[in-house]
Amino acid sequence: MYKTEEFVSAYADEKETHPFRTHMERHTILELMTDVKNKSVLDIACGSGCYSRLFCDLGAKKVIGIDCSRLMIENAIANTPINMPIKYLLCDGKNYRHTHKSDIVFHSYFLNYAASSDSLNDMCRTISSNLNKDGFMLGIVSMLGIEPAGAVDCCDFYTSFEKQPDEGKEYEIHFRGQKESIKNYNWSQNNYENALRNAGLRNIAWHPPKYCDSPKMSQENWQQLMDHPVFLAVTANK
């Protein structure tokens, strides 16, 4: 996963500049996130740290960002001001346990890496076990597996499979101009929800993407992303 510095650098830049990321993905997070001021936040699959830094800007007292990619963690550290209260850790999100639980657990494109139902259950247990009682969870979950095979969209990436993948089956996400691809697994909302509930989470709710206009993308492209969302958000409480 994330084998080249070129890919990691391009991905990190896209997270900060592409209107899909800034005006839809980030906007959705800001609309749904609870008040983070003076709260502790665990950011699972933090990648380049863009949302870890966002939570600090919003007033979080402490953020822990974890990711299984060494290159992503190195990029996150390099792009985070030293005065921000963020600690980045290289580890597998399936197995992470911290002695001090967090008020908020955030995860972005984490659950869609589950290669089996057992892995999905482990990931959801990680979320729940690291969350304080009555804590808040917000997740962004890829829905790219529902798109037509090889479909290119205005987000500058596309999926690759010969037919609609079966439940739990692998598909690839390719990024425009990049040789490297990402493997995801196709899970239904029902399977995600059952795994979250079995892990001890409650008040589980799904949310469509939200966006604010940007002149960098046409209204037609925004409508395409609303009609065929490439992600859904999910919220829950412990």
Structure notes:
The protein has seven helices and ten strands. With 238 residues, it is an alpha/beta fold. It has a single domain, classed as 3-Layer(aba) Sandwich (Rossmann fold). The strands form two sheets. It has a seven-stranded mixed sheet with strand order 3-2-1-4-5-10-9, with helices on both faces. Strands 6-7-8 form a three-stranded antiparallel sheet, with no helix packed on it. Helix 5 crosses helix 6. The longest helix is centred in the first third of the chain and has 14 residues. The radius of gyration is 17 Å and the shape is globular.
Which structural traits does this protein have?
Rossmann fold, alpha/beta, three-stranded antiparallel beta sheet, seven-stranded mixed beta sheet, 10 strands, 7 helices, globular, 238 residues
CATH architecture: 3-Layer(aba) Sandwich
Output the CATH homologous superfamily: Vaccinia Virus protein VP39
Shape: globular
Alpha-carbon Rg, integer: 17 Å
Question: How does the major sheet shape up?
Answer: 7 strands, mixed
* Rounded mean pLDDT score: 91
Give me the secondary-structure category. Answer: alpha/beta
CATH topology: Rossmann fold
Q: Just give the CATH class.
A: Alpha Beta
**Binned strand content:** 25-35%
Number of domains: 1
Q: Count of DSSP E strands?
A: 10
Task: Give start-end ranges of low-pLDDT stretches.
Answer: none
Strand order of the largest sheet: 3-2-1-4-5-10-9
The span between the termini is: 31 Å
**Helix amount:** 25-40%
Q: Treating each run of at least 4 consecutive H or I residues as one helix, how many helices?
A: 7
Helix and strand string, N-terminal first?
Answer: HHEHEHEEHEEEEHEHE
